[in-house]
Amino acid sequence: MLHSLRNYINRITSSTISDEEFKYVEAAFKMKTLKKRQFLLHEGSVCKFMSFIINGAMRQYHIDDKGNEHIISFGIEEWWISDRGSFTNLTPSRYNIDAIEDTNLLVTTRDEINSLKERSPLFLKMAHILDENSFIASQKRVEATISYTAEEKFIYLMETNPVFVKRFPQNMLASYLGITPETLSRVRKSLLGK
Amino acid sequence: MLHSLRNYINRITSSTISDEEFKYVEAAFKMKTLKKRQFLLHEGSVCKFMSFIINGAMRQYHIDDKGNEHIISFGIEEWWISDRGSFTNLTPSRYNIDAIEDTNLLVTTRDEINSLKERSPLFLKMAHILDENSFIASQKRVEATISYTAEEKFIYLMETNPVFVKRFPQNMLASYLGITPETLSRVRKSLLGK
DNA sequence: TAGAATTATTGATCTATATCAAGCCATTTT
DNA sequence: AAAATGGCTTGATATAGATCAATAATTCTA
Question: How far is the CA of A159 from the C1' of D4 (A)?
């Protein structure tokens, strides 16, 4: 289980973490198992964790006044999932996080993360690269949502995250793209024809 | 000029940078002046700088096939402006960055930033907090663009960045929100009536 | 300060996408 | 195996917002 996180740290930082340093990482995390449809975070509560997905699939979403779900992010193997806003500012979250498949996670808290960052330079480096990449990806997603048509949005998703397209049901992909399931269905149909 | 950056570092990190440490910061930056409509970055070139706005106003935008501009970000006093994707991955930028008003900047390069981060712990901390905040803000903007109506988007902008609304022409605000100037004009009219 | 350029408003259409509704699969549950 | 549930498709219709066009207001600039 933990070797998945170890691989990830090595891959992201282009380094090799030592056994000694990795012991600190090990100590900071706890295993957690979620069955399909189980919640990790409910709207209104403060997100006190960061978690790393070992296997399975999750989503982070908001439910609006009309009861519509808007998916903010997906996570699968070797992705982090958390509400970063709530986590860093200790404000109540506007989001739910739940499992789309049975999922195994490594979970840690703010305090653990903070002391881990002091003890493991490589973990710290990983955290920064993660933030940097997250921002770059998010900014591209903003561009896609403000400039693209429904069809272009879906094509962009297939190009940037083909795994999501295979892994998540179409209605959730639609929600992630900010279009309706019906529109996505029609977009796919017309793309197949080409 | 430099004291603006100094204030910023202190404010963001909730600390006070020492004279000695700040000397490294000073050494890493160069002043640059742009007249209204002058470019700092052209699409196609690699963004080799990060810059900090002392005063003035700037924008980062993409021009699509049809010639439509899509504004990715705005910057005014005490904001950073750069194409982070191009900057970190050394890939050609898809964006233009230009001045909306006469602007004074502090500019630095990748190499300078990297060695500065090694020499100044507080600058390093600032950089990380900046990334973290940028990601959180960008993720919220994603949510707004996928879930909100034109009116809600504008209200959200007024709430989160009222300065932008005062500072940038309406057609640019519309572009930033992913709606047309005509729609924004009508939205504003109907909001005034309320 | 006049003329040019840019930006904002308003009205008349048009269109991409949403909404509503029904039926069909494919899984899961009993 | 029947029933229930969740997801996907397809068709008919509605609508938010885009587009087109013209005018008005504002701000450059010579």
Answer: 37
* Predicted local distance difference test score (pLDDT) of residue A65: 87
Average pLDDT on A173-186 reads: 98
Helix runs in A31-169, H state only: 84-89, 110-119, 121-147, 150-160, 162-167
Q: Report which of B50, B63, B72 is spatially closest to residue B142, judged by C-alpha positions.
A: B72
pLDDT-based confidence at residue A26 (cuts at 50, 70, 90): very high
User: How far apart (Å, rounded) are the C-alpha atoms in residues B118 and B162?
Assistant: 36
Cβ-7 Å neighbors of strand C:
A 149-151, 178-180, 182-183; B 169-171, 181-182, 184-186, 188-189
> What per-residue confidence (pLDDT) applies to A94?
96
CB contact at 8 A, A91 and A85: yes
Question: Is ipTM > 0.85 here?
Answer: yes
Contact A74, A141 (CB under 8 A): no
B130, two tokens:
């900046």
CA of B182 to C1' of D23 (A): 14
HEC-encoded secondary structure of chain B: CHHHHHHHHHHHHCCCCCHHHHHHHHHHCEEEEECCCCEEECCCCECCEEEEEEECCEEEEEECCCCCEEEEEEECCCCEECCHHHHHHCCECCCEEEECCCEEEEEEEHHHHHHHHHHCHHHHHHHHHHHHHHHHHHHHHHHHHHHCCHHHHHHHHHHHCHHHHHHCCHHHHHHHHCCCHHHHHHHHHHHHHC
**If one looks up domain B2-117 in CATH, what number appears?**
2.60.120.10
* In the predicted structure, residue B185 carries a pLDDT above the cut 80: yes
List the single residue in A68, A136, A142 with the smallest CB-CB distance to B145: A142
Domain A2-116 classified CATH 2.60.120.10? yes
- B57-108 tens-digit pLDDT: 999 999 998 889 999 999 999 999 999 999 999 999 999 999 999 999 999 9
Structural tokens at position B4: 């603006």
- B130-to-A71, A84, A128, B78, B133 alpha-carbon distances in Å: 25, 13, 11, 12, 5
pLDDT digits 0-9 by tens, B143-169: 999 999 999 999 999 999 999 999 999
Beta bridge partners of B41: B97
